[in-house]
Amino acid sequence: MSSVTARVPRAVWLAVAVGIAARLAFSLGYWVDKPLTHDEHEYLRLARNVAEGRGFVHLQPDGTPAPGEHFGRAPVYPVFLAAVIRVTGGPPEAGVPLLRAIRIVQAVLGGALVWLVAWLAGQAAGPGAARAGGWLAAVYPPLVWTPAFVWSETLFSVLALACAAVLALERRRGGLYVAAGALAGLAVLTRPAMLLFLPLAAIWLAWRREWRGVALLSLACALVIMPWTIRNAREYGRVVLVASEGGITFWTGNHPLAVGEGDLAANPQLKRANVALRARHPGLSPEQLEPIYYREARQFIREQPAAWARLMARKAFYAIVPVGPSYRLHSALYFGASVVSYLGVLPFALLGVWRLARAGRLPVPLLLLVASSFLVCLVFFPQERFRIPVVDPALLVTAAAWWALRA
């Protein structure tokens, strides 16, 4: 424990307090009376049903099925929201008191993320980097506004970076590997994209000949995920590792009409193609449609390899340069703040990676987390919500390291 606290100066705690205050100010003072997105409605509906003992079902308050198409989601974030409902005693409906409670809790989680960024920066480049990282994370706009939304990003970011932080400890023992695996499993059950980090981490540990670490990390992660996978097998009659939304997400990013960035909301043509696909398979549930989505995407890849290769090149570009169509769905103020924040930090982050590499102090687990996020963009599609939880905090870590090592 002493190695942890030694790398976090006391000034970082002020940055944590400022970060929480900034998130509360945005959530409770500015982002009020705003309409909820589709994902927010779905998360709240699932949380309400979990809190009331009905399980992970899309039922309305009167017990009737919610209209529309609803794919299975990872369970941890709805359980987190259900816990907020139960602990606060607030109404399960998406009213102002409940939204306020969720945003307050997520602002505190945002403070934990500030601390993690500071600690990772300090681990890589010393106390000066810890201070710089803490203050950058405290006021970085995308990290300030994300807790205002009923999205899994903030919780996922804390779990994923905590996993990387545990693996970054210099003296890893059995318990630390188990802790990292458990955090990775919880992160997978929050956002399945974390699955792509696991083989990268295992390869890194194997390269370092930490065979016990490979085994314990994998076993702990599997034990966390397995009960939910077993539940899915009983529920759907087939193996669904975490959530059934993977098929449509893969299809969205690997389709002749895909543009290389953004989900269905950013591509009206592809949205109409999805409606047509569902019409060709009437009566099938979202879980039954998932293998069909995968099959059609693989057919496109197999039959049009040149077009798919061009699509992959566009994905790689949009994964780094934030100018895709999904960014332009937002207001000009949001778009500008997001792009300016990201591009303003990116050059210094890259310089930080270069300096850390020269000093032999690269934060490898964190960089593997970034690599896994990039792979998610290539396998599925780039989108700001895929970038912010992992890539942006990592940029702040290495930019802070550049600041500390610039002399």
What does this structure look like?
- This protein has 407 residues and is mainly α.
- The chain has one domain.
- It has 19 helices and no strands.
- Helix 9 (174-188) runs parallel beside helix 11 (211-236) and helix 10 runs antiparallel to helix 17 (364-379).
- The radius of gyration is 21 Å and the shape is globular.
- The model is unreliable at 1-6 (pLDDT under 50).
| Cα Rg | 21 Å
With helices defined by DSSP (H or I, 4 residues minimum), what is the helix count? 19
How much of the residues is beta strand, in percent?
under 5%
Rounded mean pLDDT is 92
Task: Describe the oligomeric state of these chains in a short phrase.
Answer: single chain
Give the low-pLDDT segments: 1-6
Largest sheet: none
Return the structural class: mainly alpha
How many structural domains? 1
Gist of the model:
The chain is mainly alpha-helical and 407 residues long. It is 70% helix and 0% strand.
Chart the SSEs and their pairings:
Blueprint: H1 2-6, H2 11-30, H3 38-51, H4 76-88, H5 96-125, H6 127-139, H7 141-145, H8 153-168, H9 174-188, H10 197-207, H11 211-236, H12 246-253, H13 268-280, H14 286-303, H15 305-320, H16 332-359, H17 364-379, H18 384-387, H19 391-405
Helix pairs in contact: 2-5, 2-6, 3-4, 4-5, 5-6, 5-8, 5-19, 6-19, 8-9, 8-17, 9-11, 10-11, 10-17, 12-14, 16-19
